[in-house]
What does this fold into?
Amino acid sequence: MLGLDGVVGAVVGGLIGAFIIANVMLTTTAIAGPWAKRKITASFTDRIAVNRVGPFGLLIIVADAVRLLSKELIVPDGVDRPAWDLAPIVITFSALIGFAVIPFGSGLHLADPETGVVFVFAAASIASIGVVMAGYASNNKYSLLGGLRAIASNIAYEIPLIVTAASVVIFAGTLQMSEIVAVQRQPLVTFAGVTIPQWFAIVNPFAFALFTLANLAEIGRNPFDLPEAPTEIVAGFQTEYSSVYFVLLYLGEFIHIFLGGAIAATLFLGGPAGPVLPGFVWFYLKMWAFFLFTQWARSAVPRLRIDQFLNAGWKGMLVLSFANLALTAILVGVIV
Amino acid sequence: MSLEEPGPDADAAAVARAADEMEALVGEHVLSRDDHLNAPGYVVRPDAVQDVLGTLREEANLDHLSCVTAQEYEDRYESIYHLKSYDDPTHEASVVVPTPKDDPRSESAAPVFRTADWHEREAYDLVGVEYEDHPDLRRILLPETWQGHPLSLDYDQERPQIVPLREHANPLEDDQKADEGETMYLNIGPHHPATHGVLHLKTTLDGEQVIDVDPDIGYLHRCEEQLCQNSTYRYQIMPYPDRWDYISAGLLNEWAYARAIEDMADIEVPEYAQVIRTMGAELCRIAAHMLAVGTFALDVYGDFTAIFMYAVRDREKVQNILEDLTGQRLMFNYFRLGGVVWDLPDPREEFFESIRDFLDHLPGSLEEYHDLISANEILQVRTVDTGVLPPAVAKSYGATGPVARGSGVDYDLRRDDPYGYYDELDWDVVTEDGMDNYSRLLVRLREVEESAKIIEQCVDLLEDWPADDRTIQSNVPRTIRPDDDTEIYRAVEAAKGELGIYMRSDGTEQPARFKIRSPCFSNLQTLPEMSNGEYIPDLVASLGSLDIVLGEVDR
It folds into this structure.
């Protein structure tokens, strides 16, 4: 990378890469949170949303940043101090770390360990710990309920998520992200001159659907936004956070959505693959598509109740994901 | 104090016969008769309340305790139980219970009618009558620390109600930990996204399951009854009803007062004005139901989502029509005694066109609602068989409106106790038998269709109304002084249910007692019945399906 060799090169390259990726993701989140989310929701619900500050209301991002950062940071009595302070940081950075192994395309790929898939899920799961810390340390019953819900839903849905991802690993025969992307480049069928690549979403749409659902639950979006559940438990684990901590929590949530999108794109949608445009652009668009999907779900789908949600997880998703895994294993074993 | 039933003599005779039959049932307890304009009144001893109410409920089919009014006279306190029949709300009776001034104690009706629980607490709170055998007699609208009873005669309004810190018993205990067991006490509200206003639910939870919920109301109490008692019948009271159920149900509320005073003072309303009233009231009902559906979806969905905004969008169209009609968007103040304040806006064709335009688009919008909510599997999973309210329980709590009709109780004052122009029009009362949150949602959505039918017929009538016969108000004297000691209880079908008003005149131009029977107040009482044993999300959904407006609960 950058023509530098050896340890120095690796370190400098790694730092520069991390800098680029982190900035790309933070900028994306800045666009997504204060601006795009409002605009998207508004178009789903017949409204206009922000349009006064700057072109298309884009400067609302700056206005919001100033507003949020200048607010008082209220620390309630009786919060469990180190845990309460650490939770927003844990949530945000666990999501950012996950991007280390994601191949963005156009050569932007920070690390490519042989166990890339395992690493990305492990990193993403750390966020659950942050949520539980926030819920438990806030000394607030609504936060506690939110934390409990977060634990329950993460256990119930992370297993199907990872088991479904495992079916992709079986298919690709590797845990390495770059290899998984490479396998998906191979042609599946050629039809009237158009070659359809071997994206796993096309090879196994059932697994893709399962993965998307479990992914929604994992990142806590509608209809599975139970850990927050406004109108039921106020704001769940976030209830007591304000100002900068609040920004960090939201940052973490949005980065987590994009990480979810990035994982789905890498495992199922061919990673950065796509015609004409450079790979990075394609990858970026795929992440945004997933973000759009979560916003659509948010506008149109009611939230499940906690017991129904867990039932669906343990009795439905788990069984289906294992069936999918077994079936994939058998098919791969027979064909290959 | 005489039995003045309007209508032919034969009817009056039949009513008198029925009244005598009822008296025969409870004859042993009846001290005398104190008939009200709307119903025969039986004066009974304070220790015979349960007996009399029980007998009347079982033998005379008076199964709806609509309201409990307490008031203080110069020489006595009086509690009035306004009874009705769910099958026929024109079949009424009042049970009047006088209690001595120095010892205002009376038997509670709560063991017979569960709705009496809150109504008697309010009577105790505001007037000061004490009820024996009451399950939980404490203040309900005013804070626990309040001194005196504001609607009693000797109450000193000048006296400041400042409570020093040491005397201020905190209604919330510092530590709500249960001595044993594993329950958690949770305050939902007064400020909470799901309470639609300032309502405080004292909730006991086992995990996420609701063991017990105790609604704590009164945060929005604005002395509406006393305000009306200090205002003149003719002009000053009419603006207040708009402020009870302020969710665009203003005209429906105004009609409650208009109906009561017009019956009391024998005021005729021209037919043309009745049609306008009917149309305006149904427009209000659509607006109110739209918001109810939208916020219910909000409670179940959990965010300001599409369905909420769609409902608000369609409600906005109704609001524009109402603004054209009344000149106001929220506090209409459009009704007058004997009619309405002004005629339809000019040019009339344009106004009719805008209503027809709205009605043409309504079926499409409703289709959209059904696609998004009632046909949505997840919403069905969430709402079917949750918040179950069996009809018998609903009746015992005096539930009315869409809440009762969602439990299969076929009760709608527009049809059963007709007023305005309703009995001339072709429409149906909507009921659903599901008894759950989903049924209440469906009832509201279908009632919007029925209201649209009514409005369409009214527009047809108004379009063809001869130009020389458009009387919008009858001749009403400048001051109204009903005869001394005339009492009346009249109710209309408001957006949330039976909105009744009891008035007693003392010969002046202001009512001596003005009591509001709020449908939300009675409906909210059913909440613990619905949600005990269910999850918090179901509690929130049930609360949304009750469609309460705190302005009307607390008055």
